């Protein structure tokens, strides 16, 4: 065990460090029968992703850290999640060993992949029983090198060898810099003044992830299905939710329970916004009551074990009945969502999806008399007055990250051509703050968003979340049936 680990724990640890204890705890351990490792379904897909990477980075050493555990407070940590780029090229998901690093070493125009990770500690090591951060007595066993090699299809080496291997590399480099500052420091020292393509690598992996392969699509489908069940769970417990002074917290907890039961975790902090809280786009405080007559805007997604996530929003009336104004706003948002979905097909420009939704949103708020200018002027680049009521975008890519492919260039993302295999959201909304004097009082405090996950097909698009009720009538029936 390292001196740092000892010093971190010395104020609360009573673990003995004498030779008698060490001798006794090190012996008389039996063999535990482990399942025979088999290749994971994603391994061939990850190998193909690495081959595409090699073609663009021939002759360069590529480094993908999984990242360390992040400290929450003193010696406690946030739930661990590997960096998305690491997962994309390795297929190691929720069970990734922290601090692991994928290194791709040039081999002609190809690369040899090696996984450096912390091998299991023997029962005779002090780490095993005394290191509360990584000791297997504390946090559970790590997989054997054979397990990792077979399951991921990647050769393995001990993490202890990483520094030496990197120090001997004499090629040009590229790495994901933000994933692990300690590994970044090692690489920076090792490569000296060699050519670097860190920025190019960050962009490349983001743009490679824009089009999903068959494995990714199947995982997103699983995430959507689990998310749908989580929404049903929430509606089935609405009597408990409305009875509690912080009903929003119950909604969050009920959904998150499903996420842990069927996946790894939630893909992002659940938004459970009741009443006027629905007007705050990223309301994650979730500390308010849920009252009869309120709308609840619930934005949530399950992240499955492979770390792919869904991202779905539904807005529903607590008592199973929209008021006249609530329904008016809801149906305007639904019309915008349907208009955006109707144009999705390969060959369009991604930003056209947003424009289609905004045309509907602008027309409705204009017809309701909320705009200080004519509709055409509001829709012009110099206008955009209707955006007061929907300041966010309509769509973002979805995958390993809820806002996937964030480092892709504008010409491939916002101004990019939509291609078969892309998965993104369509999520228009209308939000009328309680103090917005540009709208009549009976509109104030109403917030509505409808968000679906869309797969681009060869001829059009598939709404992956269509099974979760969307129309006003269906939503009312859904609430009354389950609650």
Name some characteristics of this structure.
483 residues, alpha+beta, Creatine Amidinohydrolase, Chain A, domain 1, Creatine Amidinohydrolase, five-stranded mixed sheet, three-stranded antiparallel sheet, 17 helices, globular
Count of discrete domains: 2
Strand content: 15-25%
The CATH homology group name of the largest domain: Creatinase/methionine aminopeptidase superfamily
Task: Kindly provide the radius of gyration, computed on alpha-carbon positions and rounded to a whole number of angstroms.
Answer: 26 Å
Short description:
The protein is of the alpha+beta class and 483 residues long. It is built from 17 helices and 17 strands. The protein has helices at 3-9, 19-25, 43-56, 84-90, 126-130, 136-139, 145-152, 162-168, 181-191, 198-208, 214-236, 238-243, 247-262, 324-342, 351-367, 375-379, 472-482; strands at 60-65, 71-73, 76-77, 101-107, 110-117, 155-158, 172-175, 265-266, 271-274, 295-300, 302-303, 312-317, 423-426, 429-432, 446-449, 452-456, 461-463.
